[in-house]
Each structure stands twice: as C-alpha cells, then as structure tokens.
Design brief:
Layout (H helix, E strand, L loop, with lengths): L9 H14 L6 H11 L4 H6 L2 H6 L8 H7 L2 E6 L3 E6 H4 L5
Antiparallel strand pairs: 1-2
Amino acid sequence: GLQVGAGITLSKLLDLLHSQIESQLPHRTRGFAAAAEQLRWFAGRQIRNVGTLGGNIATASPISDLNPLWMAFGAVFTVVGQGTGLREVPASKFFLGYR
C-alpha cells in the first residue's frame, strides 16, 4: 500500500507512483500503474501542478477520473469531522452517489 496526504498535488502523486513502479515488483504496482495512467490524462499539467488528491476526492463525484480507481483498489481514507475525530472510511462507503 501507499499512504499520502490530502495536500499532495496530482503532479507529485504521479511522480511518486512512477518511483514506486520503478522500485517494486510489477505484481505489487499494477494499481499504481493504473492510477499513473489515469493521472497522465487528467487535465493539463498546470492543473495537476496545483490540484490536490484531497481536493479531487472531496468533490466526491463518483464519475471523476480517479475516484472509481480508489474504490476498485479498496482504498481507505482517514477523515476528520467536527466532533467525530479521526476515522477511517473505505472509498466504497465515502462515495454514496452522484453529488
């Protein structure tokens, strides 16, 4: 698995995924490769340089380019809410429907 913060830009995430793909065995990085391929086509470089993973997830759109991947990968988000503290929410339970 891979843990990243919500503030990572999409460009930095792409760089991180590529470094993981290069340093690990292929069977461990198939999901990373799928996310990297999706990010490659995601918006323009200028948007990827300022857009963040957390911002993309927070839109909670089930038709986003990346959010279906997080559900397919079994990603778990650590979230905090007013009065709820930190909690872990599977991506499959985070995206409840079209916003």
